[in-house]
Design goal:
- The structure is a single chain.
- By secondary structure, the protein is of the alpha/beta class.
- Helix content is 48%, strand content 19%.
- It has 13 helices and 9 strands.
- Strands 1, 2, 3, 4, 5, 6, 7, 8 and 9 form a 9-stranded mixed β-sheet that branches.
């Protein structure tokens, strides 16, 4: 029985997935298996993986999305520990050994994650994600605070996966964030401040369908609002606004989708938290954004929203809470 199961979903990435699998096979850690869940590829993925190693299990599936592919692989995993790798990313030779060592020396933690470096198709270094924060990270993950957990640096105990369940198959994006959120509700998470994965940035994994991205954010927000009762509604609204605001900038950088970013992402950010002045600036032509009368007007609008819009928004989003507050005010 292998100690570690490395799960790699793939879809029409024959050349890239071979490199990903080879990076796992080059490990200094020997006790592992690789499960490649092929999500209905129509290229030569099977041929590219044939004969690589007896440790590699190729599992062909009908096309159903990467979350479904990962979940199917989870049912086949034999290891005590579960690691994930995307088919366009790479492990370092020491990655699973480092992850297993930290989990075995820290039995009170259910999951570890590490730093990651980003590079382009030409090998150019693009930046890095640092892993620095450990402990009970539920609020940091759920509230979308400055914390990035990249999936290829994560290792979980299999018992944790069995306890919380797999990835949400209705999510095409943020399924990993949703998974870490559910893990962090019950288990502490340990950071390894050491690069554990190389993340490839290429044309195939860039943002291409902002409307689909928007719908996934809205689904995640609705799920959070329904499931998480442990913090106040105002915090949930800030979370939603943070998400829409963050991805508004990602979409806005592409001139093709600039109007989509302003109309849709900025609107939803303002709907959930209307006190963020920068969102309003994007509704003005670029030459006017630095004009002081415009900024003073926005400041006045924020004060108006703080007084008038907030109770109305509370009524629309959470009528029960609004009714309770109204009764207390009348009684008091």
């Amino acid at each position: 029985m292998p100690n570690v199961s490395v799960i790699i979903p793939t879809y029409n990435r024959a050349a890239l997935v071979r490199k990903a699998v080879e990076s796992v096979l080059e490990q200094t850690y020997a006790d592992f298996e690789v499960i490649v869940a092929d999500d209905g590829s129509i290229d030569n993925t099977r041929e590219m993986l044939t004969g690589l190693s007896e440790r590699v299990r190729y599992v062909p599936l009908a096309h159903g999305g990467r979350s479904r592919a990962r979940n199917h692989a989870l049912t086949l995993a034999k290891g005590r520990y579960i690691a994930f790798l995307d088919s366009d990313d790479l492990f370092f030779p020491y990655t699973p050994a480092t992850q297993v060592d930290h989990l075995e020396r820290n039995p009170e933690y259910g999951m570890v994650y590490g730093s990651a470096i980003c590079f382009s198709e030409t090998g150019e270094f693009l930046g890095a994600y640092e892993a620095e924060k450990s402990g009970w990270l539920y609020y940091d993950i759920a509230l979308y605070l400055p914390l990035t957990i990249t999936l290829p640096t994560v290792m979980l105990r299999k018992s944790v996966v069995e306890e919380i369940g797999g990835f949400d198959e209705r999510m095409e994006r943020f399924e990993d964030t949703d998974m870490w959120r559910r893990v962090s509700r019950r288990h502490k998470i340990l950071a390894i401040n050491k690069p554990l994965s190389k993340l490839l940035t290429h044309q195939g994994n860039r943002l291409r369908e902002p409307i689909n991205e928007l719908n996934n954010i809205k689904y995640y927000v609705r799920k959070l609002m329904k499931e998480d009762r442990s913090f106040r509604d105002v915090c949930k609204r800030k979370l939603a606004a943070n998400l829409f605001h963050h991805y508004m900038f990602a979409v806005y950088r592409d001139p093709q989708y600039r109007w989509t970013a302003i109309v849709r992402f900025a609107f939803w950010s303002i709907f959930y938290w209307p006190f963020r002045g920068r969102c309003y600036l994007y509704f003005f032509p670029k030459p006017l954004r630095g004009y002081q009368p415009v900024r003073r007007c926005l400041t006045a609008c924020r004060r108006y929203f703080l007084v008038a819009y907030f109770p109305l928004h509370l009524l629309l989003v959470n009528p029960r809470d609004f009714a309770k507050r109204l009764k207390k005010r009348i009684a008091g």
